[in-house]
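All the exercises in this workshop are built on plain-text protein records. Sequence and backbone structure share a record, each on its own labelled line. The structure tokens are whole numbers drawn from a learned vocabulary of backbone shapes. The record below serves as our worked example for the rest of this section.
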Amino acid sequence: MFSFRNLVAMGVLASVGCAFVLHPGQPRAAPPIDRDWAYYGGDANGDRFSPLTQIDTSNVGQLRPAWRIDGPKGGLQTTPLVIDGILYGYTTTQQVFAASAETGKTIWTFDSGVIGRQPARGLTYWSAGAERRLFAGVMDRLYALDPSTGRPIPSFGENGAVDLRKNLGDDFTSNATYLTSPGVIYKDVIIVGFRTSETEPAAPGWIRAYDVRTGKLSWTFHTIPQPGEPGYETWPKDAYKTAGAANNWAGMVVDQKNGIVFVPTGSAVDDMYGADRKGDNLYADTLLALDAKTGRRLWHFQGVHHDMWDRDFPSPPVLLTVRRNGRNIEAVAQATKQGYVFIFERRTGKPLFPIEERPFPASDTPGEAASPTQPVPVAPAPFARQHLTEDLLTDRTPEAHAWALEAFRKLRGGGPFVPYKVGQQTIVFPGYDGGAEWGGQAVDPRTGVFYINANDVAWTGSLAERRASAAASPGADIYASQCAACHGVDRTGSPPQFPSLVGLENRMTAEEVAGVIHNGRGRMPPFPAVTATTLDALIAFLRTSKQTQPAGERGEVVSNAPAQARYVFTGYRRFRDPDGYPAVKPPWGTLSAIDLNTGQYVWRRPLGEYPELVARGLKDTGSENYGGPVVTASGVVFIAATIYDCKLRAFDAKTGKLLWQGALPYAGNATPATYMANGRQYVVIATSNSKNPTAPQGSAYVAFALPRR
């Protein structure tokens, strides 16, 4: 349960690495001039633009903390909604709450009874006349709540909720379907995707629309086509019966005027080895334009053919109007993990900048068949680096450079779309977390300037032959197929996102391990298909100190394993120097402004710092960052996102100049919201340190405003 802390009185909270100073305020009467943040993306266009101007480039340096809501440990990635002076958000365990947008005082809390450990990035609001509904995803349920009370509306679905596992196949109980990003509204339907498993088995990532009043299914779009549907020929025959994912986990946006819902999808499973899904695999890694009323496909663009690198579209697209040859064009822009921005006419799908199908290397892994080409936009230029060469290796210290050079010369590739090799690490640059990530982008609709933050570091990955041996066990085999992709074949992981499981028996009980497998945590989805004896076998393997290699590491090929499972991904690995910093030259994180009318960059700045490196004189390195920016009509870009320095920053939208930075109690790994309450403009950000486990743990929503006059 969240607790409210009144920040009108002076006080100080200090913690290791992140200091938070409270300032007094003087209450005053003001006319009720409220401007809301009623959508996950700020407005129906998803552009994260606010028309507010009270906070501007001349006074943003005066921002002070206004209120704070503290919560429990865990990850917090929510962009809250603010409607009619009420702020709606999630706790780290997916309780939903309403609070005063002016004071932070809690009004109500909804507890479904399920402790949710998945990301909960936002909510959805709908109203028609006197009717109002707040839609909240809690794990695999979509709830319709009364915004006034927080109580479920019984007439929606089954006692106020729709079970998202259903209507996806016969055995719905094994479906992993978690609503981590909010649905979108078109008239009287809510359209949703879901997060699912990234290894087999995974639910098919169908897009579904439900009636907002009854919860009845209105339409379904098959992202893995069935016989007779366009795209069926891009998969092996009858693949739809067993294939999974190609799901929308990142969110979507609706063109309300034209009735088009734009849906970016993720990769198909298995993410890293596709012998069982030869072909381009529509509609995985695709921007879909669907008729929002019927679900009928209008057009599509596939960003990665036969994805083998987990290069799913990571964030909702943005709707905007661009100026081209003297005319206005209604456009949709989609950013990618590989650092590209694709821009299309909304109604036709015509690219506004040329897209070239360029050749890339073939795969030499038995059974795999990489696409001979991949689409690359001619403009804008990539917002993250694409080719890792020796001159881009870290020079932070001579020792770090020497280590990086030796390591680099053992790696494969360096450029984009290089297939994995069995037994040798391949460079993925930018890494698996982008480029762009789920935080989304902001656009000033008056200028067509697009603001995007990015990670700019390298990762590596490889394949290994899946083998059995006398030392293997049923639990080891399950680990190899379900867990090794993230935690590595040797269980060492890639902390902090993919923690090491070595010595797990000393840190967690068997019951606690079972809870994480069933409910997930952070980036890890639940695994409902792991049940009964298979669960016991997996837990026994995970809690064994002896480093028994998973099936697939030595000995004979597993006799009962299907041919397509012959190779397994060995795990995500950051390319880091021995001190734990990226083994490439800075910037390691950036914030860019791109004019989408011309495709030219307006400015680019490093985003984030490492406090300990700053103390040694190394500033402006940029850092890993999650969460996105917002931009205001007064020309201010607000963004937190950075993991290690616990700051909310304000930049000049025209020049990129840093105007202000405010200390946060934890990292602001979320996208902020800005709104007006009782005549005062606020900027609010959700914070937590779950991505930096060495820092003090906790969570809080923090709001800033100008001092009262």
In short: The chain is about 5% helix and 30% strand.
